[in-house]
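Homework help thread (please don't just give me the answer)

Our assignment gives two proteins as sequence + structure token strings and asks us to describe the second one. The first is just a warm-up. Here they are:
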Amino acid sequence: MGLTTSDKQYIRGLAQRVAEIAADPYYAERREMWYDFNDLNPKRPMVLIFPEGAWSELLPDSTMKLEDPFWRSVEWRLRYTIYRGERLRDDNVIDPEFELSPSRGAAGWGLEIRMKPTTAERGARAYDPVMKTPEDFARMRRPHLVVNHDVNKRNYSQLYDAFGDILHIRWKRSPGINTSFVNFVCYLRGLEQVMVDMVDRPEWLHEVFAFLLENTHVLLDELEASGQLELMDGADYAGSGGTCYTRQLPAKDYTGTARLKDTWGFAESQEYALVSPHMYYEFGIKYQAPLLERFGLNCYGCCESLTDKLDLVIQHIPKLRRISISPWTDVRVAAEKLQDKYVFSWKPNPVCVSNPYDPQAIRASIRKTLEIARGCVVEMILKDTHTCNNVPGRMEEWVRIALEEAERAAG
């Protein structure tokens, strides 16, 4: 886990470059824009890009220089930030800091998610359901929060020693507890089987969700009591895209120790894309809403179409601020429902940077959506991009086009 003298010089050089980028007045301006935007007073539509799966083409692992797995991941994260600052230049804010994910999570459910073996490096993954019969549910147990203090202390100490005088080392600001748990049930039981259960054995399925709701409350209680929770009021990732800047958090009675009501919450039910609005509520929102009530502001939705479910989301999700408008949601319906009351978190279809690649079509799509959503609080987020066909410049061009259209829409 140690660094040689030359490795340390190299990693410090990367950290220094991040600090230089973060000092650019460009980011100070965007911080203020995000504060206004998330408080529903936008200066213009905001533009974000998260290449996600396509990072293997933008910044391949084979280009990393360090061999140790821990430091290799640190190197990648620093180079990722530099790539953002030097090439992508969207509205993401780069701060003079390094984010460290704490080693913590829920354990002891009795049934754990299991994957089917695969030799594929990329592509779809298959889950191997372990709740094969309703009787298997009896094997589930009350979980507990696990925090590996030794690992956290060691990782923090190593980073601080390497470049803590250049960048602020901070913990990732995320609860790290699944408050959706629709996906958890589908992984344990199987997606198709869950949809069958909604009709064949709804009472039993309600028991499963009630159990998860009760015990997720317990996990959140343990997280608050542990003092491990961090404020989410900066450039942190919000929901399924967006940033956390807001003047409405932390809560007015905040005294220095973060609570759930000082942070952003998030839930989605994208596995339910094909179920009716009634089922979407009965086996999703109904159990997510009590958890989200504990947070200060909330985001909802991911890749599912919310066209016929927006009324349910708006009616039942408490303290709602950001709603995901996926490529499969009717933007006209969304614009009518959201108006200027919620963040219209629009996700263009990521195939636009794959094939066929047509910059004019990208511009036309963005312009049309911004015209339809005029008067809404719109952010454009290109994500779920699994490939750019090994042409990284497409990502940069998308950002340039989106920013030009955002300025045009602002008048």
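The one we have to describe:
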Amino acid sequence: MRIGIVDTTFSRVDMGAIAIDEIRKHLPNMDVERRTVPGIKDLAVECKRMLETGGQMQGAAGGVPGAGCDIVMALGMVGGAPIDTQCGHEASLGIQQAMLLTNRHIIEVFVHENEAWSEEEFRSICENRIRKHAQNAIALMMKPEALVKFAGQGLRQGRESEGPIRGNRKLRLGIVVGHFNGEITGKMKAKACDAASAAGAETVVLEVPGVYDMPLVVKKLLMDKSVDAVVTLGAVVKGDTAHDEVITKDAARRLGDLSLEFRKPVTLGIIGHDVTWENAQERADGYAERATMAAIHLVKTLRQGSG
């Protein structure tokens, strides 16, 4: 039996080496054949060649010329630009077609640059996804019936597995707090955490410089399946210009758009615009508590459905 590995020169991680290392851990004597192509759109044809003829097409070392691989792993990195996403989609379609034409499995292992927020996280996702999919390739080739016991377990590649749905998870709120006017927002954070705790909700708190900086961090929280809603807390005090109005209106619009995009509540505990320092201090506790309770109420309402 033979496993084929096809990776690309475009990837910033040696994905093929990681896959081979994982295969060797489980099957030290397995015949593994590796090919490298320029980019992800070149993967499909090379995978098809390896399934049909193995090393015959490129004079592979080892194995029997003309004997196709039993399964192939297609390893690719997708860049973060829109054109890269489009190329990744097209490459995936090509891989699907190659599978149907050969009637054999190709394990697609794509890692997208915009999945991670740092190079360390990106490397970790690559390593995790490749190794888990290498184990999947082995199982599909050697003993596919063994996968039945993992059905419904919420296994995932790239990050920790989610586990099966149990129906008893606590409601979890993300709280994003602006540092600016910290004397006020610090009180707001404490009040929001107390209100969430009293309602039986868990919290994860992230701090940002100011209200204008919130949307990207809110988006990161919304991308986390374990976060049910996000509460935003900030204070924008009136100055000598209309700056406070520009900031609050723009932030409110973008936060509302994120709520609709991710289908999760994002509540507005942001004081402003056109308020004085004294006004903001007076409103701090009320804004924080109402935004927190609104998030909890909205989650419960959405969970009830429309039936």
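TA reply:
I won't write it for you, but here's a hint about the kind of observation we're looking for: The first helix runs from residue 15 to 26.
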